[in-house]
Amino acid sequence: MRAGGIGKHGIRFGAAQVIGALGLGGLGLFSGIAQANPQPGQLNLTPGVTTYSHVPYMLNNVALGVCVVIGILVFGAMFIAMFRFRKSRGAVAEKWSHNTTVEIIWTVIPILILITLAWLATDGLRQFADTTGAQMTVKVTGYQWKWRYDYVDYQGKPIEHVGFMSKLDDQSNATRQLNSGLDPYAVKTDGVNTYLLNVDHPLVLPVGVKIRFVITGGDVIHSWYVPDLGWKVDAIPGVINAAWTNIEKPGVYRGQCALLCGQDHGFMPIVVKAVSQEDFAKWLAEQQKPAAAPAPAATAAAPAQATAQVAPAHATQG
Amino acid sequence: MAQAATHDHHDEHHDEHHEHLNFFQRWVMSTNHKDIGTLYLVFSLLMFFIGGSFAMVIRAELFRPGMQLVQPYFFNEMTTMHALVMIFGAVMPAFVGLGNWMIPLMVGAPDMALPRMNNLSFWILPFAFALMLSTLFMPGGSMAGGWTMLPPLSLQTSALAYTVFAIHLMGISSIMGAINIIATIINMRAPGMDLLKMPVFVWSWLITAFLLIAVMPVLAGAVTMLLTDKYFGTNFFNAAGGGDPILYQHVFWFFGHPEVYIMILPGFGIISEIIPTFSRKPIFGYKAMVFAIASIAFLSFIVWAHHMFTVGLPLGAEIFFMYSTMLIAVPTGVKVFNWVATMWGGSMTFETPMLFAIAFVILFTIGGFSGLMLALVPADFQYHDTYFVVAHFHYVLVTGAIFAIMAATYYWIPKWTGHMYSEFWGKVHFWNSVVWVNVLFFPQHFLGLAGMPRRIPDYNVAFAGFNMVSSIGGFLFGASQLIFLGVIIHCVWFSKKKATDRVWEGAKGLEWTLSSPPPHHSFSVAPVIHDEELAHGHAED
Asked: Considering the domain boundaries, does residue B2 fall inside one?
């Protein structure tokens, strides 16, 4: 696992982050750090590790900056008013209750700010909506309370029989039982705490490849969410949603089901292990070797098999 | 003045009236808008503490990582019931109670237009909530799929039928309450109380009542389809039978988004009454305030899918709902700017209602800011269903709606009871509330940004610090509300300090021309309206 190199011990940053949050300067502090895990004391979105993930990150920072500036102006004016126009300081109330000029100004200026934000957001949204040109397809299915990953195609070739369930790791699962007496702080992988954020079989993906996800639900609605990829998409039974990613840095990226899906909603994490294309090719070849393994049997039960993308992978050879 | 004479007459009538009424007749058979208003407010306070106790369970389990107190399913029951109780049991009945009490007084009417229906619309509620809360004690437990009750998950719950019928009852109650308020405002205004002279609170309720009538049947339809899907073999939301789970979300949020404005617009009205009173200056831009509420209400019907940005909407739909949602910032901004402009150049004092009103303006605006951030679809793909959303809607609902209700309580309770509340303990309540509510909810922004999903009973240790801070804030905010209870009990039964008719030096409007407490039947004879006595009657703009 390469997680150790990427994940940083956030404790060291704790104090600096708190100080940073006091000023606007706090925003700059987080750029460039690939946070494979949520960090203790983390104050802002992760910039993520994909060609797209800077979009929500920057949009978040710009919108937050705009809000902070407006907040300082409005609340500043309020506090000045509360200080200057108090009865105890002898203030006498004025009679006016209307001023067309300022009303027009404070209607028009917000509209201009909104147009700017809308332009930025629309641009980002169009990038996200473009799932064309993918070199790989992965099908993600949400179940109560685990994920299934099926590798559909890679570099133009269909992938046979590579698919598996991915559920909470045993150590987290034992620890999370009511009054287990086990310490959540003791659940570590490569020196990083992975309590409730680790699985038995991670989703292995290559870096530098545009990967298309087709996402659906097997029973109820789930939501596939890895913060470092910069998005979440709901996994809905009977619906196939599409999304894409192109991971830039190898590493282990952790997320969770984001939509309440029943009692163990909090216990179905997502782990994406991004490796170099060579390592991925090796891993894929290894997975395809034991062709006799009855792995895909479980997939047949999933309701959403009839899509054009998914069907060929299963139609050829039993 | 002619009014003084009629007051005396009322007081006699009032006293005589009471001799014949026992407790049951007075409270259960009441058709009096003040008594029914009181019932609503007491019911709301009870629900506030029940819903709050559920929140305490949630915060206690989330105090530190690991499962210590409850099973995950019970945790989900708590999140679901907390929301349903707070929304339908605490916030909405509180606003109906305030409307019941104040609208007739503010427009110069003797009572609500439909007093018997008023009684019925209240008395449905205790039964509805008994039905819903009883499911907590049943085998299989209560609903645990979140207050949105999304299928297919909600169809797995055995308590669905009870909850659906409870929601039907709440809906009937709300619709009757709304009809009553509209009928009162349209028909019962004293001569000279033109629509554009009405207090902003009355305007906000008029608009809210139309929202209620428009969307409560939509909710009833959505949950009825859940019921038939579960018990009668229909497939509205079952993909395997040709239905669509997303259809439910569209229908639900077509109700749900106007619903969140139902919970805030009367709050806007309250704040628009309180700030001018304690600034001793007329509200800035009265007409703009009214039109802003109306435009927010209109926009609330065309933004519902912003709750569904991650369900896989087409690009065009995401863009439309993003733009329409962002547009709401404009009228909301106008309101905030106008409140600040009302304070500017005033002569301000800071009694407890004003403190809550000021906290409302600041903290609601912070909730508005996070709302604007959530409107930006690519950013929402990160924020959606994380604690960032939890922080956002608690800023608008707790420091927004609930703070407005508390402000209104302090503002009008001297009028209701004829006694002054304890200003000292009111301020103690305020400062505790405003500090701890921020300790409670502000760190949740950070948790959400770091990626903590909402509605999870346990979390990675990276989230431990802020969760503990949030829980401490939660416990102390909850405890602070016991001060509120104490202040109310003291004011109603023990306060020796009589309230004057005017109560507040800068107060304007018809309700302050009556005695404190007002006679049992106010304005049997329509008051003669002098524009300078109204808060907004002289508004030239």
From this structure: no
Complex-level ipTM: 0.90
Q: Do A74 and B384 touch (CB under 8 A)?
A: no
| Annotated catalytic residue within B427, B454, B490, B502 | B454
Domain count, chain B: 1
**How many residues comprise chain B?**
541
Question: For chains A and B, what is the number of CB pairs under 8 angstroms?
Answer: 319
**pLDDT reported for residue B528:** 87
CA A66 from centre of chain: 23
- pLDDT 10s digits, B339-372: 999 999 999 999 999 999 999 999 999 999 999 9
Q: Where do the domains of chain A lie, and which CATH numbers do they carry?
A: 54-129 (no CATH), 136-315 (2.60.40.420)
Spatial separation of the C-alpha atoms in residues B350 and B410, rounded to whole Å: 12
| First-residue to last-residue Cα distance in chain A | 33
Domain contains B22: no
Region of B345 (left: φ > 0; alpha: ψ -120 to 50; beta: rest) is: left
What is the percent of chain B where pLDDT is above 70?
Answer: 96
Beta strands A203-206 and A269-275 are parallel
Cβ <8 Å between B446 and A42: yes
Q: State whether residue A143 is helix, strand or coil.
A: strand
Contact (CB, 8 A) for A159 and A153:
yes
Nearest to B72 among A93, A241, A263 (CB): A263
Pair A59, B376: CB distance under 8 Å: yes
| B270 is a domain residue | yes
Q: What is the mean pLDDT of residues B32-39?
A: 95
DSSP secondary-structure letter at B400? I
Tokens in use for A308?
């054009």
> Does residue A116 contact residue B376 with C-beta atoms inside 8 Å?
no
Looking at residue B198, what DSSP letter applies?
A: S
Instruction: Calculate how close chain B gets to A287, using CA atoms only, in Å.
Output: 31
Residue with token string 């995401």: B318
Rounded Cα distance, B33 and B41, in Å: 12
Read off the pLDDT of residues B468-481 as tens digits, 9 standing for 90 and up: 999 999 999 999 99
Respond yes or no: is residue B332 known to be catalytic. Answer: yes
Tell me which residue range forms the domain holding B258.
Answer: 35-533
Higher per-residue pLDDT: B486 or A306? B486
Q: Using the beta-carbon criterion (under 8 Å), do A114 and B330 form an inter-chain contact?
A: yes
DSSP codes joined into one string, A37-103? SPPTT--S----SBSSTHHHHHHHHHHHHHHHHHHHHHHHHHHHHHHHTBGGGT---------HHHH
User: What is the mean pLDDT of the segment spanning B393-399?
Assistant: 96
Alpha helices in A130-228 (DSSP H): 170-175
Report the C-alpha gap between B3 and B518 in whole angstroms.
Answer: 13
pTM over 0.80: yes
Residue A2: pLDDT over 60: no
Task: Report residue A304's pLDDT band, with 50, 70 and 90 as the boundaries.
Answer: very low
Task: Using CB atoms within 10 Å of the CB of residue B427, give its burial: 0 to 12 exposed, 13 to 18 middle, 19+ buried.
Answer: middle
Domain membership of residue B1 (yes or no) is no
| CA end-to-end distance (rounded Å), chain B | 29
Residue B501 in tokens: 């008719």
What is the rounded CA–CA span in Å between residue B475 and residue B469? 10
State yes or no: is B307 an active-site residue: yes
Q: What is the pLDDT of residues B240-272, one digit of tens each?
A: 999 999 999 999 999 999 999 999 999 999 999
Beta strand spans in B81-224 (E): none
For residue A205, the SS3 value is: strand
Chain A residue numbers with beta carbons less than 8 Å from the beta carbon of B322 are: 118, 121-122, 125
CATH number at residue B519: 1.20.210.10
The residue of chain B nearest to residue A240, with distances taken between CA atoms, is B312
Q: Does A96 touch chain B (CB under 8 A)?
A: yes
pLDDT surpasses 70 at B451: yes
